[in-house]
Amino acid sequence: MSKDQKEVCMYCKFWKCDDKHAPEEVVPMIFGSCRINPPMVMQAGSQVDYAHATCWPKTRGGDWCGSFEEPRPDKYASIRPWQHISEIAIKIGEEPS
Question: Which residue of 11, 18, 33, 92 could cross-link 56, Cys pair, CB 3.0 to 4.6 Å?
């Protein structure tokens, strides 16, 4: 895999996949949230008390931008953002909660 192919959302430390159980080969097509910046305020409607909500920008795992950052190179480096917490706990040697 070339450097350009690796610098996509699914490998960025700021991206969180919406489908934590997706196999890695389909993640480039699945939506997730870019969390490099705070969530944005969105107007959901005008006639209800809860007319505003916040959300992070949605991107697909295969998308890219100029702000890519690799996850830190430590014991968490093999963890992908789309994995379920119980899988992550097993990888780092802890009991799932």
Answer: 33
